[in-house]
Every structure is written in structure tokens, then in C-alpha cells.
Design goal:
The complex is a heterotrimer of chains A (757), B (264) and C (156). Chain A is of the alpha+beta class. Chain C is globular and about 45 Å long. Chain C starts with a strand and ends with a helix. Classes of the chains: A alpha+beta (757), B alpha+beta (264), C alpha+beta (156).
Chain lengths: 757, 264, 156
């Protein structure tokens, strides 16, 4: 049976069925023999020297196996690790730098015992001055969190992070074209506004969970990690173990959003397992996950000049990112924010500087479109403010400045591969279709996914015609397995149900850079497509000897090979070719920047584009805002799994809604005051727009299989500015700080009232 | 319970207590499981008194025919407390005795002039719901006492509870019980804004004196009362905003109760 | 807490189950560890998120905030007891059909909460669906497809 039409949910069904029956195994479900349980003692103070750490009494507690502390770090091959800077000790050694930093890890026979032992650990601190905002961190007299900046030359094609010695600045990234200052001299209008975006929590429902087990010199780690090979590399360096001896296995992951990207608690748990001499499991609580990573907060000042017709002449921007106590992905976030703050506009003169700084708060990390929601919040809010001030319709102002398809946002980047003007038109139409007229607020975005084109896969065609696809792309809920299955099914002309997607496992599966930045559909999609093609070539070559015909006369059909009217099952092909009723064909491929027929050195591989349009309603007495209608538009090239693609857009939009209305990790005196699931509010089912629609544009013009582009991040970008723009349009108030809490809206309404009288 | 003194807590639905113990806010060596005492769960009406067993769950109260006939405002509130799972397990008595400052039922029960019946080896003891909670997590219940039931007088009142909820937390709540006979005294209570529910005497007097008018005078009376209260400031709402919300929900509750379409 | 042990007896996923549990054992730990029912998911541990929802006598409860001894004599259903691959419950079927799940971590709780809703109200309106499921957090789907799935069940 040929399957020409795009897959319906029946293909996705195979990946989802275990999740509706409770059969899906997640990292937090892993149990291994002799496993002990770890609980973490965390710093209660924002910045301090540890003067005494006494675990004597806790160690004596019956059932305690061992307690890992900073004293154990001396034997590591590399004590400090990181993604772009080696700044983070496996566990606090002499200093703590944020509330929540691990200072001791108790390993015990049961979680209960570990928990009880935590209370018996004595710790004394000598308090140090702390900074809990980025602004304080760059003040002249600010305490400096890290004495040295050890940058790693490992920054995708652009060298490495550029920290400033003797300061808290761990990354400085600039974009400069033309002459912004000169352009301002010719400008009819100059607008300067400052916008803020707070640090927010990933709130993936499954907290971080890791099991580490040594067997001799071999290390096996089960982790809910988005980047298994990054974990493998860091563990190799920290523990001095060959990469080949480290096996990372990733089962289903209960939500990632970037919070499980790169490396998180794996080195800590491995250190504990090594000391304990037996397998150790650490599953964080959700509150602990909130103390592990977050999105970087940002303060952004835009200085935009225009001529009298509304054409933007120049844009100057400063972006100050609150990176938390350790840099993690922060350097890349700063670089991306600097690109993403430009918008899909034709601006000849740009002067952008992004700085990411250390503060005594939860480390910043990757989160769905790194730096994107922050940058788009500023740029798209300001577009409406400018339009309002100049008396131009906000959509019209955008149209006067939009780049056409093929236009260059920066000449160092690939030209824009989408028609944003067309997307705005579709958003208009879709929101009209929901009733009650035009949108009150819109926002647009074009972001350059940081896609590293490096990932391999194996496609194994087994003797009975069943197929195993081996890839290190992680199922974090985005539906990657369905996409890979579809690509392989199509390439090999096989029934999707005959194809299994194996769990990521670094011991058996080729390198992949990681699951994030909307890259899996394109990079892993191409890798499995190439691997399937390789398998197909091998099978047809085998079959040609069997059929005594040229490979060109043969074709794959479900279950085997056909030659004219003749059909031979794979089993018979293998039997005749190999001489036994066994064997398999292994197709392999590795996508690299120099992949044949591709131009993958130029970034981005595709643009992730989004338009959001909405209307809002405010209870003006109380200040609560509800989004009454919402439309999201994305250009995805081709939706390999349409329902899954739509679900990605919807989910991204609702995360954006949370960022817009509710979410903010609050600090008071260096203490995180709402880093618990009770205190931190994320959207619930009643919070979403009652009328909503998602438009997927499919022109088949992406670099991925079947013309797909990557997707899944864009939907989060336009939500907050679209809502703020609608709020301004409908109620005459402009709020430049997220989230748009009822109190802020109430105060703005009151001020508007006062100003009017 | 007398035997274990400070180290024991009565335990009902567990929605507050187990959570507090898991978070190390509370620590008891012994829990006395009250759920084994079925009488504590019954809801009955005797003449003009509805007797509500302390162990009645929010879900039970929400679905109960006696409650929906006699005090529908309580049923309506219980059907929207927290989430469906908390309503399944959480009890009205536990809610009162835990005295969480953000809890809604104590505010309404105070306005309903409910009487709480507690029992110990020393005998039964009646306390008005309006006096029972004296601070955050503090009540007049002695450590050896159990709350048995809540007695709610059924009077000819229009009763409304209005609140502002952000996510799952009440930011301000107000209850208005306005007698159909203007000769009787109205009861107006506000809560979830400080440590415990409070009555609004100026407002009550104003309504008694001006039964038909919902005007600036009422707004002023409410503001006068609420202006005297200590109001909490936190990440959900700073004090002056919460004060405004308290005034708003109070006026909304009174307006709705005064409306003839208000619940009987 | 002082440890005392209790014999409990419950109907678990349709089967009579006897067990000895410590007084302070939470239902979630009893189900996941002693009964190996890992479809019961631990997330917030504070009865906010609903991932650990199980049915006790047709009602939804947070198994993270209920003692196992309190399930003595009860009829307890976890996701494993609702239906298996070859014999799915209509709610499971609807979630698959509408793509009402992504990472799947909230899904067992969301499905059981839906089941409880339909027990008490077979034809819920959208407002009733929102009210009843407001305590089940999903960070992936944006809820749109969950609403569509539950509405499809309400229409039958």
C-alpha cells in the first residue's frame, strides 16, 4: 500500500499510545538494581563563603550511604564545567552564588533517610555582598561573582564568548552595520523606549531526573536530557573518562522547552554515584527544578529613528541580560537576542549591543527561542508606540518597513525565506473569521534558529521488513518520532507502522548535537532521510544481483522489493544475497555543514517566522485581562505531522500567554520568593483564548525533508507584544514591563484616568 | 489527643495538613484520623439550623440538596474552591481549623453567623465562626478539642460571596448577608487580605440606615472600614491594590445581595 | 512521624489488593513503588498540577497528598486500569484522535480528571470542562486540543 497523503494522527498514534495508557517510561520512572537515592542540600543564601560544612552527624544516620560535598571535587579531572565558560563547580566548593545552589548531596538507602539526613548537616556561611538584578551587577562597586572567566573555544562558528575581565559581564555581543548616529542626524523622528522581560521558569511537568551507574570504568547515565551527546562530552571532561565509555540513555522526557538542554544535574549525580560506589538516582522536585534554570530576564532600550514617511532609518539597541550565577547557555542567548531584536525589517543602520551578566540568582539557560521573546517584546511593542506617535496604522508602519522574501536582515545571515506581509494578511483574515472584526493588536517576528548542522542516524532494515531508526533526537513531546517515522516511511516506501524509533542511546547511535532550536525536523529529518536512502541503495544493489536486473529497474514496495510484477520480501532478498535467512541492511548518514547539495554553513538554515494577532478584554475595576481571540501564523515550509505542528504552535502561544500575563521569578533580597509550583502561576485551561486559530503556511520551500522548515519556537514570540499592543489600542494604556499583571494594568488605568483629568 | 498534647493534630482531608507537613511547615508525631467517625460527615437541617458535619468535603457541600436549598451561596463557593481534587478531599472543618489566611469559607461562614461546635473530654463548646479565627493559622480551638459541626442559621437573607482569584489564590473575598427585612442587621465580612476575616461595622450600619441605596455613601463606608485594616502586601498584590480589590469585591457582594435576583 | 503499619485492602484497577503500609506512606508512593504503577506521575507534589491524579471511587484525588491508609476500602483507578493498548477507554481514544497530548507527563492525570468529569456530568459545556480541569496543568499543548477532545466526548 502506498501512502501518498500526509500522515494523519494514526501515525502519531504509535508514539502517543504509550502515553495515554501509562506505559511510557520517563527518566523519573527508571529504576536500576542496587540504586541508592540522592537528595540535595541547597544554599539558603545568595552569596557567601562556606566557612564550615559538617556532615558527621548526617553521615552517621542509619541508611546514609555517603554524602558528596565540595571536598570531593579535588579528584576530578576538571572541577568547573560549562557550555561556553567553565564556571560551574560540580557542587559548591568554597562559595555559594545563589539561593538553591547544591552544597551537599546525601545518598541514602531511601529518599526518606536522605531527607532526614539533610536536616543533620551543619553549615556556616560568611555572607558576601550580593546582586540580584542585572543593573546592580554592572554597577561600579558590584561584587564580582567569578574571579576568572575561562571561556571555551566552542561557540558555533563565531569563536567564543567574550567576557569582560574583572566584571560580571560574561558575554558581550555586538551587531553593527551602517552608521546609526549619522542616520539619526537625518531623522524626522527618534524614539527611545525601555522594555523589561523578567526571568521566567520552564515549568516542564517532569522535574530533572538522572540515574548514574558505574560498572568498572564504564558509566551509564539515564537522564531526561535534550542533548545526550553534550552530557556525554561534559562528563568525559569532568571525570576523565573516554567518551566511548560513557553511555547516555534518554527515555521519554516530560517536557523540555530548553530547560533540559545542554547539561544540568548530570555531573552532580555522576559524582555521587562514583563516591557511593553504586548507582544513584536523583529526581528533583518541581520546586528544585525551578532553582536549577530559568529564562534570562532582559532590560532592553531601543533608540529608533525614522524619516517623515515612517521608514526606519536606524536602530540602536542595548540589551542587558540577567544570566544568573552561572553562564550556561547565556552567551548564546545574548548573541541571539542581538539578532532577534532587529525584526523582519529593512534597517540600513544598526548598532546593537547585548551583554549578559552574572547575578546571584538561578542560572539562566536556554528556553524556547533563546533571547527571542525578550527581543520581540521590545521591538514589536515599540513598533506600535511609534505608529501611535506618528499617527500611522501599526500594520501600515510595519508594511512600510518589512523586508520582502529574499531580503537581508543582516548581510551575514541567510536571506529571509518567508513573506511576512502575506502572513499578516492571513492573520487578519483568520481573526476576522473568528468574528467581531479586526485584531486589536498584532506582532511579527523572524528569528534565526541556532541550528548546528551536525547529526547522524542509522536506519536498519531487518530481515522481516521491520525497521529500526536510531537517532539521538529526544522525544520531549514535540513529536519528533512521528516526523522521523514519516520521513523514513516515505523514503523507503514502507508502512509507517513497520518502523520503530529507538530511544536515544549514545552507545549505539551516531552523534547528534542535541534536541532544541527547532532543528530536529530539518537536521535529523535529513539524516534519517539520507540514511534511509543509503539503506535503499544497498537493498536495491542486493536485489539487483538476485533479480539479475539493474538497480534502476527495481523499486522498494512495502515489505520488500519489486521488479516489474515480481515481488520479493526482504527476507528472500537477504536469504538469496547473504546465503542465510538472516541479516540486515544498515543505512547510515551524518549531516554536516558540508553536506552534499546543501549550503549549511550559512546561518540560519531557515527563518522561524511568526505573526500573532489578538483581541483583549479587561475588567477595568480589577485589572484582569483576558485574551478573547488569538491567531498565530507560522511559515513551516511543510507540516510533516500537521496535527503535531499545530499543537506545537498552540502550546508555544500559550507559553507566550503565560510570559505575557503571569510569569516572573521574583527576588526579594536575593531570595527567590515564588520559586514553587504553588506560588508561580502558569496558564491553566481557563486562561486561554476562547476563540483561537493557527495558520500553517506550507510552500514546501524549507531545507528539510519534503520542504519542511523547523518549527515549534516561533509561536511564543509575538504573543506578549500583540497583547500589550491590543491593550494600548483598546484601553489607551502602554505597559513596557512584563508580565501584564492585573495590578500593573489597574495602576496604568488609574494613571490614565488621572492624566485625563 | 490530650495524651500527645503538642505533638498531635487531628487529620481530615489532608489537603492542607499533609502539604504543610511535606513542606516542613508543620511537624506532628501523631495524626488522629477523624474520617473514621461518620457522624462528622452528615449535613442535616433542623428547623432553621443547618448542621454541617466538620468532615463534609467541599465537593459534598457543593452537591448537597439541603445546602443548595438553604445556603446556596455556600454551595456555590464550595463548588469553586481550589481544584476538583482538593474539593474531593478537603473538608470544611479542616479549612476552618487550619485558618489559612487566603481561605474563603471562613469569611462566608462569619457572615452567615455560623456557630462552631467543638468537643473535648471537658465537654462541648460553642464558638461563633466570626470569632473563631484570631490570626494567620491561629484559632480559638484548644489542642485537645475537635470541631464537630458547624451550625448555620437559616434566615431570610440575601447572601453573596464575591472574590478575586489569581490562578488558584484568592486575593480578596467579601461576603454580604443582607436581611430581607431591613429591621434586621446586615452582616458584611471581608477576608483573604490580612491574617483573618473581619467584619465591616461602618458598612453594616450604613446599609441598615440606607437599605435601598447603593451610592457613594456606601462606597465611602466600605472605604472607611477597609481603611482601618492591616492588609498584606505580596507578589500577587501590593497593599493599596489589594485594599482596592477588597473594596471592589465588598461593593460587588453587597450589590449582588441587595439585588432582588440575589439568592434567597 | 512515628511509624506504624497498617493492613489495607482496596480494589485497585478492578482487582482486590491487600497490602501492609506504613501510616505515613503517601498513596502516590504506594502506587508507584509498591504496586509498580508508574503511570501515576509525580510533578508538583503540592496538589497544584494534577499529574498524580487517580480516581478514588469515581472522584479525582491528588495521590501526592493522600495517605495510602486513607485508600483502605476504596475503589482506586490509575491510568493503567482505564484501558490498555488493545482496549482503550473512549477518553484515551479521544486524546489520541485529537492529538491532545505532547510530552504526555500530565496526560494520565488529565485523562483521569476527564473521566471523573464525565462520570458526574456526561455532557459538560466548555465552561464546565474548563472549571473541572482548571487544576490540571499542561505546559505543552496549550489546552486547545484537550478541550476539543473532551468536547467530542461530551457530544456523544
Amino acid at each position: 500500500m502506498r501512502k501518498e497523503s500526509p500522515p494523519d494522527n494514526n501515525t502519531a498514534r504509535a508514539d502517543l499510545i504509550d502515553k495515554v495508557t501509562g506505559g511510557a517510561v520517563y527518566a523519573s520512572d527508571i529504576r536500576v538494581p542496587r540504586m541508592a537515592h540522592g537528595r540535595i542540600l541547597r544554599s539558603a543564601v545568595p552569596h557567601a563563603r562556606i566557612t564550615r560544612l559538617d556532615v558527621t552527624e548526617a553521615s552517621a544516620l542509619d541508611g546514609v550511604v555517603t554524602i558528596l560535598t565540595g571536598e570531593d571535587m579535588a579528584t576530578l579531572a576538571q572541577i568547573h564545567w560549562g557550555l561556553f565558560l567553565n564556571d560551574r563547580p560540580v557542587i559548591a566548593i568554597d562559595k555559594v552564588r545563589y539561593v538553591g545552589e547544591p552544597v551537599a548531596l546525601v545518598v541514602a538507602e531511601t529518599l526518606e533517610i536522605a531527607e532526614a539526613a539533610l536536616d543533620l548537616i551543619d553549615i556556616d556561611y560568611e555572607h558576601l555582598p550580593f546582586v540580584d538584578t542585572a543593573a546592580a551587577a554592572i554597577a561600579p562597586d558590584a561584587p564580582v561573582l567569578h574571579d576568572v572567566h575561562d571561556a571555551i573555544a566552542d561557540f558555533y562558528f563565531t569563536g567564543q564568548a567574550k567576557p569582560v575581565a574583572g566584571t560580571n559581564i560574561f558575554q558581550k555581543f555586538g551587531v553593527s552595520t551602517g552608521d546609526a548616529t549619522a542616520a539619526e542626524c537625518d531623522a524626522a523622528h527618534i524614539f527611545e523606549h525601555t522594555y523589561t522581560f523578567p526571568g521566567v521558569s520552564h515549568f516542564a511537568l517532569e522535574p530533572h531526573s538522572v540515574v548514574a551507574a558505574f560498572e568498572g570504568d564504564d558509566l551509564t547515565v539515564w537522564s531526561g536530557a535534550q542533548s545526550p551527546t553534550a552530557v556525554q562530552k561534559v562528563l568525559s571532561r569532568v571525570f576523565g573518562i573516554a567518551v566511548a565509555n560513557i553511555r547516555i540513555i534518554v527515555p521519554f522526557v516530560g517536557g523540555g522547552f530548553g530547560g533540559k538542554a545542554s547539561v544540568k544535574i548530570e555531573p552532580l549525580v555522576v559524582a555521587a554515584a562514583r563516591k557511593a560506589g553504586r548507582p544513584v538516582r536523583v529526581t528533583l522536585t518541581l520546586a528544585e527544578s525551578m532553582l536549577t534554570c530559568r529564562r534570562l530576564g532582559a532590560t532592553m532600550t531601543l533608540h529608533t529613528s525614522l524619516d517623515k514617511t515612517g521608514k526606519i532609518l536606524s536602530k540602536r539597541a542595548t540589551i542587558l541580560l540577567d544570566g544568573g550565577a552561572y553562564a550556561d547557555t547565556g552567551p548564546a542567548v545574548a548573541a541571539k537576542a542581538a539578532h532577534r531584536i532587529i525584526g523582519p525589517y529593512d534597517i540600513a543602520n544598526l548598532e546593537i549591543e547585548a551583554k549578559a551578566v552574572y547575578t546571584n540568582t538561578v542560572p539562566g539557560a536556554a528556553f524556547r527561542s533563546i533571547g527571542g521573546p525578550q527581543a520581540v517584546w521590545a521591538t514589536e511593542s515599540q513598533m506600535d508606540e511609534i505608529a501611535d506617535a506618528m499617527g500611522i496604522d501599526p500594520v501600515e508602519l510595519r508594511r512600510r518597513n518589512l523586508l520582502p522574501r529574499g531580503g537581508e536582515i543582516l548581510d551575514t545571515l541567510r536571506p529571509l525565506d518567508a513573506d511576512i506581509g502575506d502572513m499578516i494578511g492571513r492573520a487578519d483574515q483568520a481573526i476576522m473569521n473568528l468574528g467581531d472584526g479586526a485584531a486589536a493588536g498584532i506582532a511579527v517576528a523572524a528569528t534565526d534558529p541556532g541550528i548546528l548542522p551536525l547529526g547522524g542516524a542509522l536506519v536498519r532494515v531487518l530481515v522481516d521488513g521491520s525497521i529500526i531508526v536510531m537517532s539521538n533526537s529526544v522525544d520531549i513531546g514535540q513529536g519528533v518520532r512521528t516526523v522521523l517515522r514519516e520521513v523514513v516511511a516515505k523514503m523507503l516506501n514502507q508502512n509507517p507502522n513497520s518502523i520503530q524509533i529507538a530511544n536515544p542511546d549514545t552507545s549505539t547511535t551516531p552523534f547528534d548535537w542535541g534536541t532544541g532550536a527547532s532543528r530536529s525536523t530539518v537536521i535529523m529529518g535529513l539524516a534519517v532521510e539520507d540514511a534511509a536512502r543509503d539503506a535503499s541503495d544497498q537493498i536495491l544493489a542486493l536485489a539487483s544481483s538476485v533479480f539479475d536486473g539493474a538497480p534502476n529497474d527495481l523499486r522498494l514496495v512495502p515489505g520488500g522489493v519489486a521488479h516489474g510484477d515480481e515481488f520479493l520480501p526482504f527476507q528472500d532478498v537477504y536469504h538469496r544475497a547473504f546465503g542465510v535467512d538472516s541479516g540486515e541492511v544498515v543505512g547510515r548518514a551524518m549531516v554536516t555543514p558540508t553536506r552534499d547539495g546543501s549550503d549549511f554553513k550559512k546561518s540560519p538554515l531557515f527563518w522561524e517566522t511568526a505573526v500573532g494577532a489578538c483581541d483583549v478584554d479587561v475588567d477595568q475595576e480589577i485589572g484582569t485581562l483576558s485574551v478573547t481571540r488569538y491567531v498565530g501564523v507560522a511559515d513551516v515550509g511543510h507540516a510533516i505531522n500537521p496535527s503535531g505542528a499545530e499543537g506545537q504552535e498552540e502550546g508555544a502561544a500559550v507559553q507566550g500567554l503565560g510570559h505575557a500575563l503571569f510569569e516572573r521569578l521574583d527576588y526579594v533580597d536575593g531570595q527567590p520568593v515564588n520559586a514553587t509550583p504553588i506560588a508561580y502561576r502558569v496558564p491553566a485551561i481557563g486562561d486561554i483564548a476562547k476563540r483561537a486559530h493557527t495558520v500553517l503556511i506550507e510552500n514546501g520551500d524549507g531545507p528539510g525533508p519534503m520542504g519542511a522548515k523547523g518549527m515549534g519556537e516561533g509561536g511564543i514570540l509575538p504573543v506578549a507584544p500583540a497583547i500589550a499592543n491590543a491593550l494600548a489600542r483598546r484601553y489607551g494604556i502602554r505597559i513596557r514591563d512584563l508580565p501584564l499583571t492585573p495590578e500593573r494594568i489597574w495602576r496604568a488605568l488609574r494613571k490614565r484616568g488621572d492624566d485625563a483629568t | 489527643m490530650a495524651r500527645y498534647s503538642d505533638d498531635v493534630s487531628p487529620y481530615a482531608g489532608g489537603t492542607e495538613l499533609l502539604l504543610a507537613m511535606k513542606m516542613h511547615f508543620a511537624d506532628y508525631q501523631h495524626l488522629v484520623d477523624l474520617k473514621r467517625i461518620p457522624e462528622l460527615r452528615t449535613i442535616i437541617r433542623r428547623d432553621d439550623i443547618v448542621s454541617l458535619g466538620a468532615l463534609a468535603t467541599h465537593a459534598t457541600i457543593a452537591d448537597d440538596a439541603i445546602i443548595s436549598g438553604a445556603v446556596p451561596a455556600l454551595g456555590a463557593l464550595c463548588s469553586s474552591i481550589a481544584n476538583a481534587r482538593v474539593r474531593t478531599s478537603g473538608t470544611i472543618g479542616g479549612n476552618l481549623c487550619f485558618a489559612e489566611p487566603r481561605a474563603d469559607p471562613p469569611v462566608l461562614l462569619a457572615a452567615l453567623d455560623a456557630q462552631l461546635v467543638l468537643k473535648s473530654a471537658r465537654g462541648e463548646h460553642h464558638i461563633s465562626a466570626s470569632q473563631f479565627i484570631i490570626g494567620a493559622l491561629e484559632t480559638l480551638r484548644a489542642p485537645d478539642e475537635l470541631l464537630l459541626r458547624i451550625e448555620i442559621p437559616v434566615t431570610a437573607c440575601n447572601i453573596r460571596y464575591e472574590r478575586v482569584v489569581f490562578g488558584h489564590r484568592t486575593i480578596a473575598g467579601a461576603a454580604a448577608a443582607i436581611p430581607k427585612d431591613p429591621a434586621n442587621k446586615p452582616r458584611i465580612w471581608v477576608g483573604c487580605i490580612g491574617t483573618h476575616p473581619t467584619s465591616l461595622p461602618t458598612t453594616e450600619r450604613y446599609i441598615s440606615a440606607n437599605p435601598a441605596s447603593l451610592d457613594d455613601g456606601l462606597t465611602h463606608a466600605i472605604a472607611t472600614d477597609i481603611g482601618t485594616l492591616d492588609i498584606v502586601s505580596d507578589e500577587d498584590a501590593s497593599a493599596d491594590y489589594r485594599r482596592h480589590l477588597a473594596e471592589t469585591v465588598t461593593r460587588r457582594a453587597i450589590t449582588a445581595a441587595a439585588d432582588k435576583k440575589g439568592t434567597p | 512521624m512515628t511509624s506504624s503499619t497498617h493492613n489495607i485492602s482496596m480494589t485497585l484497577n478492578g482487582e482486590k489488593t491487600n497490602a501492609l503500609v506504613e501510616a505515613h506512606t503517601l498513596l502516590i508512593d504506594f502506587l508507584r513503588d509498591a504496586q509498580n504503577l508508574r503511570g501515576v506521575k509525580r510533578s508538583c507534589d503540592m496538589q497544584i498540577c494534577g499529574a498524580c491524579t487517580v480516581l478514588v471511587g469515581d472522584h479525582p484525588v491528588s495521590s501526592c497528598t493522600m495517605l495510602a491508609v486513607d485508600a483502605d476500602g476504596a475503589d482506586v483507578v490509575t491510568i493503567e486500569g482505564l484501558g490498555d493498548r488493545d482496549n482503550l477507554d473512549p477518553v484515551q481514544e479521544a486524546f489520541l484522535e485529537f492529538g491532545a497530548l505532547q510530552c504526555g507527563f500530565c496526560t494520565p492525570g488529565m485523562i483521569l480528571a476527564t473521566k471523573a468529569l464525565l462520570f458526574s456530568n456526561p455532557t459538560p459545556s466548555r465552561a464546565e470542562i474548563e472549571h473541572h480541569l482548571s487544576g490540571n496543568i499542561c505546559r505543552c499543548t496549550g489546552y486547545q486540543k484537550i478541550i476539543e477532545a473532551v468536547e467530542s466526548l461530551a457530544q456523544t
